[in-house]
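Exercise 3.2. Students should predict the tertiary structure of the chain below and write it as structure tokens, then compare their answer with the key that follows.

Predict this chain's 3D structure.
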Amino acid sequence: MPLPRRVRSKTSGKPGERSFGRSEGRSAPRAGKPSRKRSEEYRSPREDARPEEQPTTHAKARTEKRYLKRSGERPVARYKGPTRERVDDQSAEHAATTPVARPSSRSKGRPNVRLPIRPAGAAAVRVQWLGFRPMFDFWGKEIKRFFQLETLANATERMIERGGDKFIVASVQRALGPSPVVSLAFELFQEGQFQLIFRLRATNDKRKQAVLGFVVAKKEGEFSKLAGIEHSNLKLLHARAPEFIVTPYQGGTIFLPDRLQREGKGREVYAYLTQWQGTYHELGVGKNHQFYINVVNPQSLSIAQTEELKGQMVEIVARSYDPAKRTCMEMPQIASGDFVVTKPGQGPLKLKVIACRNLLRNVTPPKLIDQIVAARWEWAGRPFRLAPEYPETFFEGLSRAVGKDVARAWLVQYRRCVEDKKYPERHPLKREALDELGIGLS
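Answer key:
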């Protein structure tokens, strides 16, 4: 019985003799372990060929690919491309000479153009993602997501590498200056019902660093529309009260392809960047209706500190009001993380607004006051109010925003509306409390 084919000699055809050459006419190997160096008498026919008969680069690649497929080895990455000085010129020439292809059925009418990896003159940006984990709400329930975080990471990196990013690098350069950005590190920081918040650490080629907030809608459609509205509202409100509203940067959409490559299943979600508040932390509401600072070890605030922060909330809402346009911010959702606060050991407590979902229109000063005292939510089985407990705290907050004389005039108008039954009488601005403040109709 002949030996298996794998040990049959290709040189002599006799069983038991193994050949190290691929073609006939090569000398047989010496006995014992073959040397790494080829013998002097051995010379490949390819080396003896004339230059015009040398195998092409494509033929070499095909031969190497077949060998690797049979042997099961992994190919070694080798860089055989152009030098760094020619990359930008070739990328620009490729983008200018590449013809526009027909749109495929999956592209939804978008031309299937092969873009360069990054635009001419742009440096590579190193991107890193950290902190991917499930997150939970105040009651310990895992917050629902509508796409994998890895999908967002891959889509964002692809957008930056291919030059499709119009707002991330531009926002970083607005904070650091026009120098090229060299690294971006995204870390999952906070998650709500409608959006994800990442802490973005950016570095440019001058080694300057900045920290920004990266806010991403959790779903296409209504969630993305809401994120776009929030971004526009923050721009408007920051112009009115820059000390109390977070600084917004640029925004745009990110295309998330379907993981299973199904047709028409891709999504576009809205994202924007803001200034990161390093000394501020999320403000939460405890079961006892006292505020707490939502950190790794939550820090509860006292009743007096809660009352102080409610007075600041009245001030912020009043500062967002524009009497000429008669618009102001919607009453903030405190339990949803709309406010961030400093820790008590860092000086006086300070608040900032990081989200505003809507603007109230056709608002008069009496209506603004009524909206503040009417804002309430069910929390731990009891109604939780935005307005402070004492009317003096309310008046002080309103006075800091518009001045004592204007605040007193607004309260007089509000009491007149209450007397006319236009607005119901509400705590803490009842008739007796207004009398104690000296707010009468005369």
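Discussion points: Residues 3-31, 33-49, 78-92, 100-118 have pLDDT under 50 and may be disordered. The first strand starts at residue 126 and ends at 130.
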